[in-house]
Amino acid sequence: MSQVFFEVVAQCPQTRARAGLLHTAHGTIGTPVFMPVGTQATVKGLSERDLAGELGVEILLANTYHLFIRPGHELIRRMGGLHRFMSWPNAILTDSGGFQVFSLSGLRKITDQGVEFRSHLDGDLHVFTPQSTVDVQLALGSDILMALDECPPYPVSHAYAREAMERTVRWACEADRHHRRQMEEVLGRHALFPVVQGSVFPDLRRRCAAALVDLGSDGYAIGGLAVGEPRVLSLEMVEAAEEILPRDRPRYAMGVGMPEELAEYVSRGVDMMDCVLPSRNARNGYLFTSAGRLIIKHARYKEDGRPPDERCRCYTCTRYSRAYLRHLFLSGEILYAVLATRHNVRRYLDIMQEIRQAIMSGLFPEYLRSVRAACVDAE
Amino acid sequence: MSQVFFEVVAQCPQTRARAGLLHTAHGTIGTPVFMPVGTQATVKGLSERDLAGELGVEILLANTYHLFIRPGHELIRRMGGLHRFMSWPNAILTDSGGFQVFSLSGLRKITDQGVEFRSHLDGDLHVFTPQSTVDVQLALGSDILMALDECPPYPVSHAYAREAMERTVRWACEADRHHRRQMEEVLGRHALFPVVQGSVFPDLRRRCAAALVDLGSDGYAIGGLAVGEPRVLSLEMVEAAEEILPRDRPRYAMGVGMPEELAEYVSRGVDMMDCVLPSRNARNGYLFTSAGRLIIKHARYKEDGRPPDERCRCYTCTRYSRAYLRHLFLSGEILYAVLATRHNVRRYLDIMQEIRQAIMSGLFPEYLRSVRAACVDAE
Question: Which end of chain A, N or C, is less packed with Cβ atoms under 10 Å?
Answer without folding.
Answer: C
